């Protein structure tokens, strides 16, 4: 856990939000996805679809309103669809940080502040988000509605730290300048390629192989089956 207050847009389901819609219905795309999800569970275990349906709702809100969040009326619609009490959906939605129970900006900037990312420059990533995204602190949404800033714990990609998650995508090996460039591209409506921003191949070492350098690389076409020495015991497969 870093020193920063761990705030995000996701925690409370207290009073109704001013922007809270008064009704919600699943659109055709969501309904098709729900059919697929619910087919995985026996009728008596439909409650297991709670998390997938929350994801589906959040995506629908992002698609249709530009703000990927889960209003309370949508949680009620999920409860109705699954035949469970609404509180069962509320308690899941408020437990997991990936569900936004308040409206957010068009792009959700999630800065990893855990130790490996902190040691590799997450403070610079945060500063770049604040400057380029016009954001004051964690939990803030920019006045133009473009960005919301959240601190998250380890995203499981420490090997390419520091990491910024934008919505569902990871941007890796960031520094101040590359983070600013990324945010400016998002503002222009572009979506830069995800993954390492320094061209690293997945999680390979920077600068290419660093160990086992004495081993000659042989292409599959060059490989030959080694000759069996005379008198060697037969190979048992
Ligand atoms: S510490 Fe940031 S991805 Fe693990």
TrEMBL record:
Keywords assigned: 2Fe-2S, Iron, Iron-sulfur, Metal-binding
Cofactor(s) this protein requires: [2Fe-2S] cluster
InterPro entries linked: NuoE-like, NuoE_dom, NuoE_N, Thioredoxin-like_sf
Region (Disordered): 1-23
KW Electron transport (keyword) present: no
Pfam families the record matches: 2Fe-2S_thioredx
PROSITE patterns for this protein: COMPLEX1_24K
Protein family: Belongs to the complex I 24 kDa subunit family.
Protein name: Complex I 24 kDa subunit family protein
Organism: Roseomonas elaeocarpi
């Amino acid at each position: 856990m870093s020193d920063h207050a761990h705030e995000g847009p996701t925690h409370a389901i207290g009073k109704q939000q001013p922007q809270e819609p008064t009704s919600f219905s699943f659109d055709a795309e969501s309904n098709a996805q729900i059919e697929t999800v619910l087919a995985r569970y026996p009728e008596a275990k439909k409650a297991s679809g709670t998390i997938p349906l929350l994801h589906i709702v959040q995506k629908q809100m992002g698609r249709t309103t530009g703000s990927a969040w889960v209003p309370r009326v949508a949680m009620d619609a999920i409860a109705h669809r699954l035949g469970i009490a609404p509180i069962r959906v509320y308690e899941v939605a408020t437990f997991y940080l990936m569900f936004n129970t308040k409206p957010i900006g068009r792009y959700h900037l999630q800065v990893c502040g855990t130790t490996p990312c902190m040691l590799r420059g997450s403070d610079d990533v945060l500063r770049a988000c604040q400057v380029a995204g016009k954001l004051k602190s964690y939990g803030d949404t920019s006045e133009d509605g473009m960005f919301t800033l959240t601190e998250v714990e380890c995203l499981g990609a420490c090997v390419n730290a520091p990491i910024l998650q934008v919505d569902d995508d990871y941007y890796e090996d960031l520094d101040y300048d590359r983070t600013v460039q990324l945010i400016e591209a998002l503002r222009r409506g572009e979506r830069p390629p995800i993954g390492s921003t320094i061209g690293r191949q997945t999680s390979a070492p920077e600068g290419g192989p660093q160990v086992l350098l004495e081993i000659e690389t042989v292409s599959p076409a060059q490989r030959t089956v080694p000759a069996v020495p005379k008198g060697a015991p037969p190979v048992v497969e």
